[in-house]
């Protein structure tokens, strides 16, 4: 067996090539486009299979430099915090608060179902947690972040990355599949009054539905946005270190502190009128960071470990899909008003309750293209799915970890 160590520069080149491979394939496979499968997921899985073949048939193991992994992950979550503008909350009103409680309830149920099925199959309950709200409502980014924690002591679950990536990918596909049918079922069953599908005046759409006139990304603005992210990483890591050394019995992963730092920084700067965060630029930096991070996480997963856990993981994920569909129909729709907006919200909830916010947006866009616009849904879902869900999920996961001991 020969081990080849790939240095920082070689690892960076491979990560970028994995992303380019994912982009190349997705452009040519309609199924991957229809279900909004991310480029790093496609490229990373193909790379992992290639490296597995290299190991199995060539006796060669590649050991990549992991020094970029954590900073990229933390940069992504910092960008989520920097994009959280409290002024936007007023637009969602009462329904936003209700929807937040609704999605928080699902987080608890996802973990109850996941852990229960795992224990019933005689497996490590951490598999159930990773197949629960960690990846279902958290997606690939949150799944990878918590997997990094579960690999360490006192958990010592070596297959955490493999389980997280497999679960998140399955959920992403399933979330894109069931969202439209759930909304269609609710609309037809309840004979809901829908807007005229042609009455989509772009002049009345909210900030999450159509882009504003684009501000140019310049060298100066890029450095300013990069400085904000760097500050979030610095403070987030410092606070995480202080909390860990304080030994208070309740700690959260470092990415949560970076996210909180971003939230505070953005809204303090805005309220004092010191600086206005360039949302599009920060979003680009965050998405690039996440893509590179996922490319590394997926291309380095150990597929051999995943094979032995395939049956329990699949069983857990099928139960999660059934739970999501039932919850969207009987809880999300009912508590959010039992109207057309609620049906669109249910479709969006299927998207980020099993996958990610972009999947939720695709689900809602598909429904509204057919039945008519829902302005309220396009305001509420991005706020909850791209920001609030990460904070609440971190607290819920930590609570379940405390319960499991």
Automatic annotation (TrEMBL):
One Gene Ontology biological process: L-glutamate transmembrane transport
Keyword vocabulary terms for this entry: Amino-acid transport, Cell membrane, Ion transport, Membrane, Sodium, Sodium transport, Symport, Transmembrane, Transmembrane helix, Transport
Keyword Cell division assigned: no
UniProt xrefs under InterPro entries: GltS
Bilayer topology annotation: Multi-pass membrane protein
GO molecular function list: glutamate:sodium symporter activity
Record localization: Cell membrane
Membrane-spanning residues: 6-29, 41-60, 72-89, 96-121, 163-187, 222-242, 248-269, 281-304, 310-330, 342-364, 376-401
Record keyword GTP-binding present: no
GO cellular component: plasma membrane
HAMAP family in alphabetical order: GltS
PANTHER family linked: SLR0625 PROTEIN (PTHR36178), SODIUM_GLUTAMATE SYMPORTER (PTHR36178:SF1)
Function: Catalyzes the sodium-dependent transport of glutamate.
Family affiliation: Belongs to the glutamate:Na(+) symporter (ESS) (TC 2.A.27) family.
UniProt-recorded name of the protein: Sodium/glutamate symporter
Native species: Campylobacter iguaniorum
Underlying gene: gltS
């Amino acid at each position: 067996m020969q081990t080849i160590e790939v240095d920082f520069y070689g690892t960076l080149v491979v990560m970028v090539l994995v992303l380019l491979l994912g982009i190349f394939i997705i452009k040519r496979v309609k199924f991957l486009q229809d279900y909004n499968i991310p480029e790093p997921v496609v490229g990373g899985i193909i790379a992992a299979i290639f490296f597995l073949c290299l190991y199995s048939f060539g006796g060669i193991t590649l050991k990549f430099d992991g020094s970029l992994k954590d900073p990229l992950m933390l940069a992504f979550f910092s960008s989520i915090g920097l994009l959280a503008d409290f002024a936007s909350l007023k637009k969602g009103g009462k329904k936003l608060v209700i929807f937040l409680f609704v999605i928080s309830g699902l987080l608890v149920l996802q973990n109850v179902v996941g852990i229960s099925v795992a224990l019933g199959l005689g497996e490590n309950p951490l598999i159930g947690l990773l197949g629960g709200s960690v990846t279902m409502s958290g997606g690939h980014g949150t799944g990878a972040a918590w997997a990094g924690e579960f690999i360490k002591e006192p958990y010592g679950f070596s297959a955490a990355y493999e389980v997280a990536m497999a679960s998140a990918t399955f959920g992403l596909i399933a979330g894109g599949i069931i969202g439209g049918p759930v909304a269609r079922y609710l609309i037809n069953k309840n004979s809901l009054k829908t807007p005229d599908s042609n009455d989509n005046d772009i002049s009345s759409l909210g900030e999450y539905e159509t882009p504003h006139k684009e501000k140019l990304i310049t060298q100066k603005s890029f450095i300013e946005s990069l400085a904000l992210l760097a500050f979030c990483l610095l403070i987030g890591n410092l606070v995480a270190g202080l909390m860990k050394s304080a030994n208070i019995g309740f700690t959260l992963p470092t990415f949560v502190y970076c996210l909180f730092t971003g939230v505070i920084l953005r809204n303090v700067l805005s309220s004092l009128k010191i600086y206005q965060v360039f949302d599009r630029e920060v979003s680009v930096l965050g998405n690039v960071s996440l893509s590179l991070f996922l490319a590394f996480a997926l291309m380095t997963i150990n597929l051999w470990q995943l094979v032995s856990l395939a049956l329990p993981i699949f069983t857990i994920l099928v139960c999660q899909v059934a739970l999501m569909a039932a919850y969207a129909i009987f809880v999300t729709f009912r508590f959010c008003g039992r109207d057309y907006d609620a049906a669109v919200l249910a479709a969006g909830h299927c998207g980020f309750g099993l996958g990610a916010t972009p999947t939720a947006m695709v689900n809602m866009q598909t429904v509204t293209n057919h039945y008519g616009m829902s302005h309220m849904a396009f305001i509420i879902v991005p706020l909850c799915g791209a920001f609030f869900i990460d904070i609440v999920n971190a607290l819920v996961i930590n609570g379940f970890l405390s319960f499991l001991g």
